[in-house]
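Justification of resources, computational component.

The compute hours requested in this renewal are based largely on the per-chain cost of generating structure records like the one below. Each record pairs the submitted sequence with a full structure-token output. That output is archived, and it is also reused by downstream analysis tasks.
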Amino acid sequence: MVSIPQNILTDFDFGSVSTLPDGRLLREYTILVSNNDVELFQGITYPAWTYNGRIPGPTIRVTEGDLIRIHLQNGTGHPHSIHFHGIHSAEMDGVPGTPGMIGPGESFTYEFTAEPFGLHLYHCHAAPLPGILPKGYMEHSSSTPRKVGLPSIASWLW
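The structure output for this chain reads:
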């Protein structure tokens, strides 16, 4: 997928939204890890691992306090995960030794409350990292603060 860099600045994914019994919003996302050739310049491509066919992956936009549910599907021949920067349980950390590290063809669902608001990165944390980092994915999500009076443009980069 070819993306115009300026479009990514406002290309937010708000997920599928529903309301939980406690009144909070549930935001659900599906992310597919796949092998894609990414065009760096006209006629010059690079083999990359992508989230939903793009680099950077989707900007996950939420509000502080929302319940986040992300369904990760691995469409590659290498183990993958999503390691989220922010506050969540160890089971949702996406590092080796946790349930979120999935093999080829497998899937996993991450679930946690979006907190704190801010900019947070997310990325794969499968070993060996030297094999993953050159493949080019470092993604982000954004979270608006729930409290009135705080800046409305605060964002999360996972």
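The beta strands are 12-13, 16-19, 25-41, 44-51, 59-63, 67-74, 83-84, 107-113, 118-123, 139-144. The CA atoms of residues 2 and 41 lie 10 Å apart.
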